[in-house]
User: What shape does this take?
Amino acid sequence: MKFSAPKGMQDILPPDIYIWQNVEEVARELFHKYGFQEIRVPIVESTDIFIRSIGETTDIVEKEMYTFTDKGGRSITLRPEGTAPVVRCYVEHNLYNLPSPQKFFYTGAMFRYERPQKGRFRQFYQIGAEAFGVSQPSLDAEIIVMLKNLLEKIGIAGLNFELNSIGCDKCRPDYKNALLKFFKSKLAIYCPDCQRRYRTNPLRILDCKVPGCVELRKGAPYVKDYLCNDCREHFNELIFSLKELKIPYTLNPNLVRGLDYYTRTTFEVTSEHLGAQKAVAAGGRYDRLVEEFGGPPTPAMGFAIGMERLATLLKEKSEQKIPSPKVFIATLGRDAEMEGFKIAESIRSSGCWIEPNYGGASLKSQMRKADRIGAEFVLIIGDNELKAGKVQWKNLKNSQQGEVEIKDIASIIQKLSDYIPK
Ligand code: ATP
Ligand code: MG
Assistant: This one.
């Protein structure tokens, strides 16, 4: 019986895992400089948390959630995204009593029951950041700059920052009405999904990828023309800041995002190298969500990066450095093997990756193994070497070899590496 991973879910193995670890390390270090602290929230939450925040008529809630009843009869959902759990956590622990802003980041698995395809999985990973307590557009700008810096630091260039404002509770109804009016006359020839969206969530028609609908919505009312004064000012100030900070962006009036909780700023970072699923990261403001979760009115803003799509870009970009052991210890006989284990321990304490021999094999096959696993050095220990308190060494990269006293091994490993031609 052979098993495979669940549909749409994948194993992340070495050497790919090193790409992921590097992104996570760089993000941790960089986010810290902007005052974002890590939090870890559960992988499951009460289903209501997602329905209330993401919205009943969104794709995620209607079609994509992994929802089940636990043994206590509660409806539980594997988190499809990180913002709602972080807001739940912020309110539950009264974090609004701490000085504003409070800034957090998280990394972890998300789950959506989607049709698996390139760049779209049922379990995928995000790095997300959320900041609470600042309504000024300078926060929006800072978050966008932080994201840009991260993407640059890990070596991804040529990304496009798409930007929009979808207004607030005050101005969005007017915009919705204008859209309804525009769509109404040709509604019958929109796709079935858009006909449903017309009734439930008309803004999402702007986001439809069906070519016929893309054509039909040309000339649709532009959200920018419907923003109230406050929202317009917020958006203009954000644009001004991005210009000052020299962050290139494109205005995309169709960027409405698939989650209901957004207000004002929405943005997406896209790459032309990813095919249809081209968004690497996405986010926006959600100034009403904390209040909806029972907290005091607290403006907030965040984003999430899709790790799989980022890893795809990084893999395409350059040849990957694959870590390998520095030293392999070849041993002949039980006594030598024991000595080999002791030597391995002393070298490890100096900080390098070392593989011992686990017994049995001939010297020839051990040498072959050392080569196959990419070791830089082999130390060879047999009975004669043991008696003399010495080991043979061989540099597999340049074939130099010699002998060294056992007590000196750890200290000369570093020196021996210097012999490796660069
Ligand atoms: P998309 O338009 O690609 O469906 P989305 O609007 O559903 O994205 P968000 O909820 O904003 O995505 O998630 C932020 C990021 O997480 C996306 O930009 C993408 O990089 C990644 N992401 C979302 N869904 C998936 C998935 N099913 N598989 C892999 N990555 C995903
Ligand atoms: Mg989606």
